[in-house]
Amino acid sequence: MPIIVQLSAETDDWDAFRAALASFVSGADLPPSFVSLRAMRNRDHPNRITVIEEWTEPNRVHSDADRTEAERDRLLEGLGLLPGSISRQYWLTEDHADHPTVCTSDRPRSNQP
Known about the structure:
- By secondary structure, the chain is of the alpha+beta class.
- It is 20% helix and 27% strand.
- The longest helix is centred in the first third of the chain and has 14 residues, at 14-27.
């Protein structure tokens, strides 16, 4: 069953955050269960951002699953997110085909031929 991870936070510099995120993703050894990642910012409050990740397996969401919440937050703060502004939500989906996403990784989507 696919899972969506929604990370919400604030940043002082959207362009620097996007560049750091792109650099991190391109250098990361992402597991095959990773499908896509998309970063967006709030039109009315441009310092508020949301990152949506899609994974095919809930138990394989992060390669850093053994890290503490504080360790993950330090990693995210290193990408330019403001301390104390980071929150995560996890969403299970019933049918992967009913939830299309934009794939911004080099990895092809698992449900595409």
